[in-house]
Each structure stands twice: as C-alpha cells, then as structure tokens.
Amino acid sequence: MSLLNSVLKVFVGDKSKQDVKAIMPIVNKIKTFEDEIQALSNDGLRAKTLAFKTTIESACLSIENSISKLYKEADTTEDIDRKEEIYQEIDGLKDEVYTKTQGVLETILPEAFSVIKETARRFVNNTSIEVTASSYDRELSGTKDYVNLNGEKAFWANSWDAAGKPITWDMVHYDVQLIGGVAMHLGKIAEMHTGEGKTLVATLPVYLNALTGKGVHLVTVNDYLAKRDSAWMAPIFQFHGLTVDCIDYHQPNSQERKNAYNADITYGTNNEFGFDYLRDNMAHTPKDLVQRPHHYAIVDEIDSVLIDDARTPLIISGPIPQGDRHEFMELKPKVEDIVGIQRKYLTGVLAEAKKMIASGETKEGGFQLLRVFRGIPKNKALIKFLSEEGIKQLLQKTENFYMQDNNREMPKVDEELYYVIDEKNNQIELSDKGVEYLSGKDNPDFFIMPEIGMEISKIENQNLSAEKEAELKEELFREFGIKSERIHTLNQLLKAYALFEKDIQYVVMENKVMIVDEQTGRIMDGRRYSDGLHQAIEAKENVKIEAATQTFATVTLQNYFRMYRKLSGMTGTAVTEAGEFWEIYKLDVVEIPTNRPIARDDREDLVYKTKREKYNAVIDEVTNLSKSGRPVLIGTTNVEISELLGKMLSIRKIPHNVLNAKLHKKEADIVAEAGQPGQVTIATNMAGRGTDIKLSNTVKAAGGLAIVGTERHDSRRVDRQLRGRAGRQGDPGSSQFYVSLEDNLMRLFGSERIAKMMDRMGLEEGEVIQHSMISKSIERAQKKVEENQFGVRKRLLEYDDVMNSQREVVYKRRYNALFGERLRVDLANMIYDTSEIISEENKASNNFKNFEFELIRYFSMSSPISSDEFSGMSSQEIAGKVYKTAFQQYLTKMERNAELAFPVIKNVYENQRDKFKRIVVPFTDGVKSLQVVTDLEKSYQTNGKQLVTDFEKNISLAIIDDAWKTHLRKMDELKQSVQLAVHEQKDPLLIYKFESFELFKSMIDQVNKEVISFLFKGEIPQETANIIQEAKSRQREKTQTSKENIPNLDERSAQSRSAGNTQGRQQKIETVVREMPKIGRNDRVVIKNVISGENKTVKYKQAEPLIVKGEWVLVN
C-alpha cells in the first residue's frame, strides 16, 4: 500500500502540499495588508470592524428589504396558497443572503485576518493600549479588570485571568497559522501538530464570520477548555466590539444562556450545544428558546467529537410508570452461578489442554484450547499460555478448521459450553446447555420462546369456542412478551459478568456505575449504556438500579453538527480518518505545516512475548530516563494498567503522578507538572488534549520529553495523539511504544507472521525484537480495527438518518406552531391531507355512508356532495371539494370563536387590566379540555383573533409532542425487533426503513386528524369575566439528560439471535406501560352510536368490529 501511495504521489502529487499551495496566494495577500494596517492608529484599527460590517450589510440590503416586504404581505393576505408561496420565496431569499455574505467574507478575508494579526501584535508589544472609549468599553470596564476608563479614553491591558489562570498575551500569528485560519474559513479541517497554537488560529475565522452578526459557535470537548478558551481569547474580539460568552457558565433554559447564544461568539461543549437544541424543541413559548439558527461552528478536537462520539445519542428522558420494575435481581443469582460453573469447568479444560499439547497430542489439545478460548477469552492464564511458542498458531489453525463450511463443525466445540463469547464483536450467546441449566428441571420452558405461528395453529386446530380460543391466544402473547423481556434481561446480565470489567470499562463511585472513556480514561458523567446493560452492571456491582426512562427527545452528535450551514474543525490527529470525514460530513482535511521542523525521535516498536516482560522493560527504561533528567509521559489504555505501573514505580522509589478516570479532576495540575526534569507522569493515551506540556531549557538540553507507550491503541490517531505530546515547536523529544503478543490488539487482530517469526527466532524470556516491518504489521492491525469501526458508524448513521429525516419534519412543524406565522399554512395542509385520506379510503371501498360519518367525526360538517356525485367523481376531485368546504367552515368557526370570546376579553381588559397580563381561556371538544394562555392586551387589540391563534398553537404543540414521544418509543422497539430479519436472510436496515416510514406516516395522519378534530369541535365555554384567571408560569417537565453508549449492529443482531428463532417475523413487543388499562376480550364495555347517541353494554370482542367500522365509540 505504501508503494502504491509513493507511485500515486509521483503522478498525482502530494495532497497536503497541493492543499497548502492552493491557500498560499491568500496568505500572501494577507501579508500585503500588514504595512497598511500597522500604520493605523488604535482607533483606526478598531474602525475597520465597523467598516467590514457596513460592507456586509450593504451587500445584502436589497435582499433583506425584499424579505421584509414579503413578511408584511404574508401577515396581511388571507389567501393560503399565496402565503405558502411567500414563505417559499423568503426561504430562497435567505439562502441568497447567505451566499452573498460568504462572497463578501472571501473578499474582505485578507484584510480582516491582517487586522486580527495586528491586534495580537499590539497586545504583545504594549502593556496598555489607549483608545477612545466606546459605549461597549464602558460596559466592559464595569465587569472586566483589563479595561479601565480615564475620561473619554479607555485603556486595554495585555494581562488578564483565563479561567483562574493569570496570563499575559504573548502570541502573534505565524504564516502557517494563517494557512490554518484560511482552511477553517473555507469549511475544512485543519490538522495542526501539538503546540502549533490551534486556539490562536481559530481567532481568525471566528472574527471574520462573527462580522455577519449571525453567531459563531466554538465547540470544545470539555467545559474546562470552553471556559479557558473563551476567557483567554475574549479581549482580542472584545477590543473590536464583538461580544463573547460561554454557555457552560450558565444554567440550561436561563436568560443568561439565551444571552450567551445571542453573543457574536459563543464557546461551549459539544454536549451542551446538542442538549440545548433538544430543549428548544421541547419549548412551549418562543421566549423559552435559547439557540439561534445554526450558522457556523468550529469544532476543536473534531476527531474526538465527530468520530469517537459520532454514534452517541444525546437523550432527554423522563420517568415512565412502573419504570423501576425489572428482573435483574431475580436473575442475577442464576447468572452468577452459570458464569462460575463455566469458569471452573474451563479452567480444568485448559490444564488438560496444556498437558495434551505438551505430550504431542496437538489435535485434541487444540480442540480443548479452542473450547477454552470460546468460553473465557479474557482469562489471564489462557492469554499467558497463548504467548508461548507455537500455541497461538495452533489455536488459529484449529479455529480455521472448525470455522470452515460456514461454522459447520463449531457446534462440536461449543456443545459443553453454557455460553459462547465472541470478543471481537463484543457478543455473548447462550447455548442450549446454558438454557437447560438456567431453566432447571422444575420449569424446563422457563427461557424457551414459544413459536408463535405454530402455537396459534395448534390452538385453532383444537376446535374450541371463540371465547376459549381468544383466551388461549391472549395467554400465548402474554407469555411471549414476558419471556422476550426475560431473555433480554438475562443476556444483558451475562454480558455484564463476562465482558465488562470493573476499573477498565467502568468504575464504581459514590454508589454509582460510571462509564470510563476507553480513549481518554476520563469518566463520562451522565452517560449510561443502553438496552438495560447499565442496569445489569448495577445489579452485578450491588448498587442502586436506576429506573427505566422514556425518551422525550434525542439526536446524535453527527446529525446535530450536520445542521450548521458551515462547519469546520481543528485537531492534531485527523488524517487517518480523512475518508470518513469526507464521506459522512463532506469535510476535507488539510495538513498544516509546522512552524519549525519536528525534531522528535519516533522509534520502531519493541515487541515482547508477554505483558510481564514488557512492563519490566518499561519500568527499566523509565527509571533510566528519569535519572538522566528527562521528564517521562507513560501512556496506558486503562485504569488497571496505570495503577499497576504506579505500584512498580513506587517499589523502585521513582516519584510519579497518575492521571486516570479516578483522578481526572486533577488533570490540569498534573499536566502542568509533567514537563519538570525527571518527572514521571502515567496517563491514558489521550490525556492532556487541549493542553501543552512546556519544557525548560534544562529539559531540552537533556533530550526533551520522553513518550513511553505501554500498548498500541486500536486507533492510529490515538497513538499519534500520545506521540504529539512531545516535540512541540521544534523541541527535542522521543517516543517509543512497547508491545506484547498478549495485548488486546495483537491477540485479536495481530498478524500471525509476528508470532511465527518470534517462534522461529527462538526468543528467550525478556528478549525483544524491533524492526520497521513489525511496526508496519501492527499498523495494518490498527487499520483493520479502524475499517471495522468506520463500517459500524456508517451503518448506524443510515439508521439514524431515517430518524433524523422524521425529526426534521416534526421539529419544523413544532417550530411553525411555536411562532404561529406559518401555522395557518400547516393547518391548511393538515385539512387537505385529512380530506385526501378520507376521500381515497372511502372511494376505494365505495362507502358513502362511512365517508359522511368521517366528515362529521373530523370536520363536524355534513357532506358537500351527494351520493351520486360521490360515485361519479374521482377521489382527487372529492378531496378538493371537501377541502374547500372544510377550510371555509374552519375560518368561519375561528371568527365565531373570536367573536364569542371578545366580550369577555373586552370586559376584563377595560375593568381589570391592571390585575391581568396573560389570561387562561378554557377550550373543550366535549371530551378533552385545553387551557389556552393568551396575552390580554394583544387579544383585545385584535378583537379576539390573538386568542384563536394561541388556541391553534396550543393544540398543535400538545398533540405533536404527545405523538412524537410515543413514536420515539415505537422506533426504539422497531430497531430491536428488525434485527430478527437476519434469520430470514433479509437486511434489517431495509426492513427498518420500510416499517419506520409506515410508522411515521401513521403518526402524521393521526396528528393531522387529532388536531383537525379538536380545532373543528373546540368551543369556548360561556364564562363570565370574574372566572377569568391570570396565567401562571408553566412548570417544566422533570427530565434528565444523558449520553448513551450504544451497541453496534452486530451486537444488536446477536442479542436478537439469543432470543431464539421464530417462523416468520416476530411480534413487536410493547416494553413500556400502556397509556390506558388493558381491556380483556371478555370484559363488558359501554359503547355509543355516533349517529343516534344510543348506549349499550356488550363484551369487548363483540364491540371491536363495530368500533373499527367507526359507527360506535368506546365510552368506558
């Protein structure tokens, strides 16, 4: 592959050089402005910002005027078709404004970048900068120490506090930083090495794009960086009159957070930006919204956010009835028992396998070894044995034999196992023997799923009475639901015990199970594993099992950030994922050259046979480096290894700091000390993102920072991140990775050639090999993992795209309902869609009687056409006729509602307006009631029309929100159930797309009908003025925010397979409590005839067909 790349570079050229070459003319143009900008006074420099803003406004003025005129026309016209056209024109003009603005920004870019560079230079060269005080300077002087007033003059100091750390400005942009700034403005990712000043580079595109007044978001991976960077860079922007804020300083939904979003430049963490988007789409009034439209975002450490966290959903959830009911504690003893029995049995098998292999019985010994590997792959004794000469090759040869012909022989290996673990795909599957053991002799069918199709056939063949047959079928479905949930619970418990290890994947702190980020080693507060896995781990660790919740709103980070009109990013490690960035986000990666050549010595990997040999070699090397006066950063992959190395260093009496998930709060302090002579710091491979380890001249003379990696990570960029800690700005340094054949990457994906080579060379204990070929082989193993992960993310994105397209439709409707300006158009479309559905369904069955009934049911009107006309017209003609009549009737009804309400409103306003600002007016459709909050003064001024608008808003929001919550629950269940399609040789994704479309279509139809029905039937009870009440502020629903760690699609399929095969599709299971009590088929119910009003009491099974026809409705 490297040879192919070399050949391609000869003919096509090096991409990174071509990218830089394309940007250099812009950089040269920036430099032509430097002399002119330097000659300006301080006031003249600041005046440039106002000139830039004026240029942008002038370019867009005529379009903005056209938009204003169209808005006025939309407010005055009553023609719904014209309204729809106007809003489409407005959307098109807004796109034109954006295009025009981007053109102006490209024109002024060289001069604007030069202004920021000159500002940075003046802050370096002057301890105080004197300017004529503006109103903004006066406002800042009251809260910021670095701005002082003296008469008409303001003085800007070049020292200030950056999130608790005093700093003096000492940075001016290099030419390579100008390249990075241009790349980001063009909507690309700038890959810049550690120490090259990414935070400073961002000031260039941030300033330029903030001039539009549409808002720029700078997104960081944690709140420490958001607060630090916003305080550190703020004076550079504020000097030019731009406002800066950080959302992480303020509470969600507060006015302060809304102000932060209204600032020109807004800093914050990726999670909070996403959660605020979800909260905004749960708001009930426009003033509750905090975010503006998504204009431009720069994502710091973009690979961490858009690759590592890409498939992580942000979820706002709330409690569900009986959400604390589960079987985890009941099934836990069974799972503990079976895990213990399998471990004990396979420990004996491993001892037997060792004896057989030692005596030359390699065939039987290999068979037993494979059995152990499939039952307890993480067993330390097994891992150690596999590192011995020839053993790994024997296992791979045996596995290949039993995997041939589509795993035909594998059941022979698994027949004595209670469950089988596939470590590569993080899957676990219960065997027949395991099911039998767990069920016990007393209840052998305890975990056996009934074959629905076969069992129904058996019931129907018994020639039972209709009542008895219905009873047996109901019992069958109930049993299926219970066992399905039980198997899912059991599978998650098995996974918790067999695959998840404390202090590696998670830690237990303050009686809670908290997930540890596998790459950074940080605790991911608020994040939970999905599908009940987190509850299973809580049961395993004997901590409180949190109640199940229902999703109210959810979005993945990759779909949130794709909403921005323009997106760019910066990181030190993006090239290895460049293909994914382009394919999913259409983001190009530009490698920015370093300001000074890299002097770091990156050595070839040292490969040992066992972990013990490797760790001993690491400690020897660290001891020598520390004694020579060089600081050492040891990179590890989990908490356990960090603590092990810490103990080994303590035995050698080497002073050191450990940075892991348990000590993540001390990160800034530990990283600050990491550059001291002889200092040893143990941290995860991703530690210190966003912070630089700075070295003294003494340390540089001793050889600089030494990086010691104790294991290769699954991803090459994580190793590059660790290496990048050394060698900043041309500093000396070195990096060395230590690898063993027992490491996870080597065990799962390492080349057989390495193991064979070490065996042929006859390496003794403690001996090591080091060669470029070995390092390349390890890199190939990493590429395998990266390709697998990319495939998983891409496939999950396809699932999430389905959800995202539905979310956009619902949230757009919600937005229109919230603001009301486009609501009439939406309501007209609802009326037409409902008219069309009623016409098509009844025309197809030629049922005029039901057509009449549905018009009364939904529109409260009689048919506008006769039976003969119904027979002679097409469904489209009927729909058009119904729509015209229904919409005209709707307008008349709303006018009548306004007329009925106005005398009451007039009375309250004229006599009690000092007591009331917003009032509550009740509406009812005869079944449900709705409290409509409206502004008293506006309702009075519009003769009651404002009340009608608020009525339309309230009912639309209430019904959309309720339907969307139910739909989210059904979509979650669908995603689980479609994985069973693999048994039918079908693609689960295709089934998911088809069925989710049907679910969504059904939801939209239901929303349309419910909204229309209420609006047509809704009446204002005849209230007197003294009953009118002041509207209280709405209490927020109790919710919680979380990020879930979700299983990949292979894991989901495995979970489904463990639920057993069925003939045909399995029935979808409701896992959430019903909204209404369940009615048995033989329960007696009261039904009412919608035409005559007659009531009668019958059994539910008799009432069901009458209700379905629509002639009768259920009363209780």
Structural class, judged by helices and strands? alpha/beta
Question: Radius of gyration, rounded?
Answer: 34 Å
The total beta strand count reads: 33
pLDDT below 50 for ≥5 consecutive residues: which ranges? 1046-1077
- Based on CA inertia axes, which overall geometry fits? flat
H/I helix tally: 41
Helix content: 55-70%
Write the layout of secondary structure elements.
Blueprint lengths: L1 H11 L2 H18 L1 H5 L3 H35 L3 H46 L2 E5 L2 H7 L5 E4 L2 E5 L1 E4 L2 E4 L6 H11 L3 E3 L6 H4 L1 H8 L5 E5 L2 H16 L5 E3 L8 H8 L2 E5 H11 L15 E5 L1 H7 L4 E7 L8 H31 L3 H14 L4 H7 L4 H17 L2 H5 L4 E4 L4 E4 L1 H8 L12 H9 L5 H33 L7 E4 L2 E4 L11 E3 L3 H8 L8 E8 H5 L4 E6 L6 H8 L3 E3 L7 E4 L3 E3 L2 H17 L4 E5 L2 H13 L4 E3 L8 H7 L6 E5 L12 H6 L2 E5 L6 H8 L8 E9 L3 H6 L2 H9 L11 H48 L3 H23 L2 H12 L7 H6 L2 H38 L5 E7 L4 E7 H6 L3 H33 L10 H30 L11 E2 L9 E6 L3 H10 L25 E6 L5 E5 H10 L2 E3 L2
Parallel strand pairs: 6-18, 6-19, 7-9, 7-10, 8-9, 10-18, 16-30, 20-26, 21-26, 22-24, 22-25, 23-24, 25-26
Antiparallel strand pairs: 1-3, 2-3, 4-5, 11-17, 11-30, 12-13, 14-15, 27-28, 27-29, 31-32, 31-33
Helix pairs in contact: 2-5, 2-7, 4-5, 5-9, 7-9, 14-15, 14-21, 15-17, 20-21, 21-22, 32-38, 32-39, 33-34, 33-36, 33-39, 36-38, 38-39
